[in-house]
Design brief:
It is built from nine helices and ten strands. By secondary structure, the protein is an alpha/beta fold. The chain has two domains: 123 residues, 3-Layer(aba) Sandwich (Cobalt-precorrin-4 Transmethylase, domain 1), CATH 3.40.1010; 125 residues, 2-Layer Sandwich (Methyltransferase, Cobalt-precorrin-4 Transmethylase, Domain 2), CATH 3.30.950.10. It has a five-stranded parallel beta sheet with strand order 3-2-4-1-5, with helices on both faces. Strands 6-7-10-8-9 form a five-stranded mixed beta sheet, with helices on both faces. Helix 3 packs across helix 4 and helix 6 crosses helix 7. It is globular and about 55 Å long. The termini are far apart. The protein binds S-adenosyl-L-homocysteine.
């Protein structure tokens, strides 16, 4: 149990919802506030990407509710999840909405916060370490470097209906962002690479695909923009994967502190 007074932590007030980022997997990457929320929550509504070791940290007696995709079945609808959070708060519980990474980075945290605000439910957002920063750090890839990359773009490779996302200006990203970090992009990696190359990125630019980042099952496949999709398939790399495109990927050769895993092609 965390000493919340010594750390000046906010009180988890009954009837409120905390939207909390659990980080990419390693429980050591939880924030102190996230741990405090786990200590005090009456119910924990969690997503598929939250590491099981983190769910186990919930206060004994807390009600655990899964709100993600299971066994190929579709995820619960977003309005249903928001309605559930509102209901639990209205019943007087301390409601912990736990999400992988950061709740507001491709995590629908903003949508849920808007629903809570509209229902006049007090809420707090507790940021988490997003996979696109923390996951890459565990692969020995800093997302920026003063000499190599002074801008980075986080982009989703997955549209609402599973197709390529609409509204992403791949050419602008290709021109303006030396480092590109792709979330949910394994299925469309080939198409995305084609667009970036068509817009002028070098086919030889290094790409790292990091699977299950920060967990004991972390795997990293390093290839080039032209070959990345084929390499991912050949290596049978599994989701979730975070993908980095850019010269910073080369730093991994010197910075892979997490250790080489079997099956790696770096
Ligand atoms: N809110 C999360 C992202 C949710 S979208 C965050 O901030 O990290 C889901 C995508 O996140 C996955 O498809 C994958 O691209 C990425 N992701 C999340 N956790 C990951 C992990 N441990 N390893 C690799 N990718 C991860």
């Amino acid at each position: 149990m965390i000493d919340s007074a010594r750390l000046h932590l906010a009180e988890f007030v009954p009837g409120s919802v905390w939207l909390v980022g659990a980080g990419p997997g390693d429980p050591g990457l939880l924030s102190v506030l996230a741990l405090h929320a786990l200590d005090h929550a009456d119910s924990v509504v969690y997503d598929a990407l939250v590491d099981p070791r983190i769910i186990e940290l919930a206060r004994p007696g807390a009600a655990l509710e899964f709100a993600g995709k299971r066994g190929g079945r579709p995820s619960p609808r977003q309005p249903d999840i928001s309605a559930r959070l509102i209901r639990l708060a209205q019943e007087g519980g301390r409601v912990l909405r736990l999400k992988g990474g950061d709740p507001c980075v491709f995590g629908r945290g903003g949508e849920e916060a808007l629903a809570l605000a509209a229902a006049h439910i007090p809420f707090r957002i507790v940021p988490g370490i997003t996979a696109g920063i923390g996951g890459l750090a565990y692969a020995g890839i800093p997302v920026t470097h003063r000499d190599i990359a002074s801008a980075v773009t986080f982009v989703t490779g997955h549209g609402r209906d599973g197709t390529m996302p609409e509204g992403v200006d791949w050419a602008a990203i290709a021109h303006g962002s030396p480092v590109i970090v792709l979330y949910m992009a394994l299925n469309h990696l080939g198409h995305i690479a084609e667009r970036l190359i068509a817009a002028g990125r070098s086919p030889d630019e290094p790409v790292a695909i990091v699977s299950k980042a920060t967990t004991p099952a972390q795997r990293v496949v390093v290839s080039t923009l032209a070959d990345a999709a084929a390499c991912a398939e050949a290596a049978r790399i599994e989701a979730p994967t975070i993908i980095a495109i850019g010269e910073v990927v080369r730093l991994r050769a010197a910075l892979d502190w997490f250790g080489c895993k079997a099956g790696e092609t770096a």
